[in-house]
Each structure stands twice: as C-alpha cells, then as structure tokens.
Amino acid sequence: MEQQAEVMGKVVEILRPFVKNADALSSVSMETSILKDLKVNSARLVDIVLEIEDAFGIAVSDEQADQVKTVGDAVTLIMKTGKA
Amino acid sequence: MSDRRVVVTGMGVLAPNAHGLEAFAGALRAGKSGIRFHQHLADAKFGCQVGGIPEGVDELQGRYLSQEELLAMNPNMVYAAIAAIDAWTDAGLERSTEKVDWDTGAIIGTGIGGIDTIAEKLAPRVDQGKVGRLGSTMVEQIMSSGNSARVAGLLGLGNQVTTNSSACNTGTEAVIDAFFRVREGRAERMLAGGSEGSSKYIWAGFDGMKVLNRTKNGAPAEASRPMSASAAGFVPGSGAGVLVLESLESARARGARIYAEVLGGDVNCGGHRMGGSMTAPNPVSVQRCIRAAVRMAGVQPREIGAINGHLTATFADPHEVANWSKALELKPDEMPLLHSTKSLIGHALGAAGGIECVASVLELHHGFVHGSANCDDLHPDIAPFERRVARRTVELPLEVIAKASFGFGDVNGCVVFRKWKS
Question: Which of B136, B137, B154 should we substitute to test contact with A (largest number of A Cβ atoms within 10 Å)?
C-alpha cells in the first residue's frame, strides 16, 4: 500500500486540471475542501472519481463518492479501498 | 424604447485564413486562401479532401481559456469563445470575474453543433455499455447552446443567451435577431454571430450528398470556386465570427468606437414551395427577404456598394445572382460589386454568416471589396454581370454593404450595414 503522502501527491495531480483556484493547491492539506477551497465545479467530481479509479485500480461506489468532500476524504478512501 | 439605432462596436473572428481583425482584413485584401489538403479526410475516403480549418488553435486556446474550461469544450465551443472574447475586448468592454452584465446577451449560432463529441466520445462509450464512464462533460458539449452558454460564463452575460440554428443562414440570422433585440430596447448590447467545428463528422454528410468539390484535392486554394463555370460544389469550412451590436445611445455614452450601423435586416422561409425544398431556395422568398431588408434599411438599391453574397460554388450561384438583380430591380451593369468570402475560406456552415458579416463590416470600415477568387471562368449565366464581379480586390469608399445567407430548409437572411461617420 502506498504511503499517505504519495497517495496525496497523486490525488493533487488528478485534481490540478479541475481546480479554478490554482493558488490553493500550493498550500493543499488533508483538510482542503475540493469544492470550497479549490473551487472545483461540483459536476466535475464525477470525472475526478473516474480518474481516481483508473489511477489506483479501484472501484468507488456512488455512496463512497458522495462522501468525498476534502482532499483527505479522497486519500483516506483510496487507502482504505486499496487495503480492502 | 422602440426603433433604437443599432451599431457595431466590436468584432472577433477566427477564420481558416486568419485570426483577428487586422490579420483577417489583410488576408481578405491579399486574397489569402485558408483552404488546405487534410490527410484525415483522405484517410476517411472523403471525395472532398480539402477544407478550411483555423490554424494554430492548439497553441492559441491556452491564451484564452483555462485548462479547467477546456476540459469541457469541443472545437465549436473553443472557436466561439475566442471570437467572442476578441469581440468583447475590441469593443472596449471590461471583463469581470464577479459582476453579471444584465444588459448584454449573446446569440451565437451553430449549424451542426457538437456532433464530433457525439461521434468520438458519447456514442462509442454508450455502445460499449460504458455510460458510467462518460463523465460530466458530455452534455455541455453536445447541447446545441453549448457555444453561447460557455461565452456567457466567460463574460458574465446576464441578458438573453441562446444559440440559433438555421443551417447556412445561422450566423446572419443571429446578427439580425440580435439587432432586433437591441433595437427594441430589450438589451443594450448583444454578441451575435456563429461558430462551427472542423470535424470530419460535421462534414461527412455533405460529402455523402456529393455537394462538396472533389475535383481540386491537389490544388486546395483553387477548390472553392463561387460564380465559376467550373464550380463543382462547396468546400467545407469552420471557425467563428462574432460582432458586438450595441444601441447607439450606449455606444455614445461610453465613448465606444463605432464601425458601422445596422440599418435593417430580414429573415424568412420559402416554405418548400415554388421551387424551394429542404435543399433548394424558393426564389420568391429569397427576393422577398432581400427587398424587406433593403426597405427596412431605408436605402435605395443604387446606394448599395457591394454584396457579400452567400455564393457557395454550387448550382445555386447563378440563381442567387439573378435573385439579387430581380430583388434590387437593377440591371447587371447597375449591380453592386458581387463577391464571395467563401472563395477564400470555404463554407463555414453555421459560422459562415458570422465570419462574413465581420468581413463585410471590415470592408466598410477600411474601404475595400476583397477579390472573389477562382472565378476567372465566370459561369455563363453570370457573364452578363462580369463588370460587377469583384475578381480582384478593389479599394473604394464603400458606404453601404448587403450581406445575405441562404440555408438548407429554404431559409434566408439579409442584413444591410452602413459605414459609420461620426
């Protein structure tokens, strides 16, 4: 299983094309809100989840996807799903 | 608030032979062709393997649009956005990331729309049972209004924002509809014009109809031949042309530079009667449309210095010229100078009227009529008009120009511009 920092780095790169507030990426943390802080269009969460599935070889259910609010939520989900 | 005067205060153009007003005016004057051979058309076994595609857009789009915006934009939307942003800037208008401009709207049409997105992304995934992997960006690229909707977001437009579609009349119809909206006082400014992408999927249906020229694949610059005896079908084109139409009082209040006044315009349909059909114009409706536009403009036919015609290089060209002559009640030698911008850029379908209205206003502004290429061998039915066909660029103090478009569906549009004199 990849370390948290490594997973987070990959998540940030997946998020990068979708963010409207690029400055917020430079100080990104586990608590950073994908919608409020990074200003990602909420409709694009679907695309982000698809890219996470491809990048980490996991399947994310709709219910799990709905729980992803922060960068940390995505990282935790990836690490948990990966372990499972 | 009715019958207000409407003027053109800004323009943007992304054409196969140039991007930007200065380059486009120069390309028109110089007779620069934007028609090229395209290997991907040959690979798909098109009969017509030449076309007009704006060049350098991959590099250009990054200067206008963010990576996030480009994720959900096909070429049709990108072309519209570049032309609209250019028009906005040219009009001296400010871009705000916060404010909504309730007084400005957009009618930016398209003929075929996002069929390339459907063909390349949506249909294959649906057919493979992968609907769940379509992502979020399909609808905004395939909804007909995607091009104008994106522009609304880029510029913060708060008035009417819509996409019209009337085949090859689309861009001209958009200008006329926007003219009426400003004239009636429902908006202070409207962005108006058209855009069309450059995909083989957009063009294939026309190739299948055998209405594209398949005789000049080895000589692309000679392929688009309006008014020529050797015209053998049109050459597909693409791009976008957008004008900022504004009430005269608004333009004056903010000290805007004014290119031209929109004097009048009309749109109609031939009802697929009297020789008209889905693919051919009813000549009576064409003449009625021209007459109505000129009547509304309040000018005498002899005051019209030039006609930027529809003139696509099909069998319809001689009929179009005859219709102009009848509608204006002018003998061949009395006619305005006839020319076709399509001879240089091809037929940009839903974008044609927008790009060609920009061309017409540039001609008024700078005082020239660009040469209509590839008609040295004039069609015999147009031969009586030979002295009034602008085969080479003419410098002249143009005062009034008429622009018309005629589209599949038997639909027509004609708009009359006058050079602005302060």
Answer: B136
For residue B14, give the nearest of B237, B343, B272, B227 by alpha carbon.
B237
Direct distance between the N- and C-terminal alpha carbons of chain A, in angstroms, rounded to an integer: 11
Q: Of how many residues is chain B composed?
A: 422
ipTM of the complex: 0.89
Check B68 against A18: CB less than 8 A apart.
yes
Each residue's pLDDT, cut to its tens digit, for chain A (84 residues) gives: 568 999 999 999 999 999 998 899 999 999 999 999 999 999 999 999 999 999 999 999 999 999 999 999 999 999 998 754
Residue pair B224/B213 in contact by the 8 Å Cβ criterion = yes
What is the C-alpha separation between B11 and B241, in angstroms, rounded? 8
Domain count of the fold of chain A: 1
- By the 8 A CB rule, do B169 and B267 touch? yes
CATH (domain of A47): 1.10.1200.10
Active site residue B347: yes
Q: Which amino acid is at B251?
A: A
Quick one: closest CA in A to B139, which residue? A43
Dihedral angle computed from the Cα positions of residues B280, B285, B288 and B290, in that order, rounded to the nearest 10 degrees: -20
Q: Which domains does chain B have, with CATH numbers?
A: 6-253 (3.40.47.10), 264-419 (3.40.47.10)
Mark residue B267 as left, alpha or beta (left: phi above 0; alpha: psi -120 to 50; beta: remaining): beta
Name, in order, each residue with C-beta under 8 angstroms of B241's C-beta and a sequence gap of 6 or more: B11, B12, B13, B14, B15, B83, B171, B193, B194, B351, B353, B354, B355, B356, B357, B358, B359
Give the separation between CA A38 and CA A25, rounded to whole angstroms.
Answer: 7
Kindly determine whether residue A47 and residue B136, on different chains, have CB atoms separated by under 8 Å.
Answer: yes
Residue A59 structural domain: 4-83
Question: Chain B residues with CB inside 8 Å of A45's CB?
Answer: 136
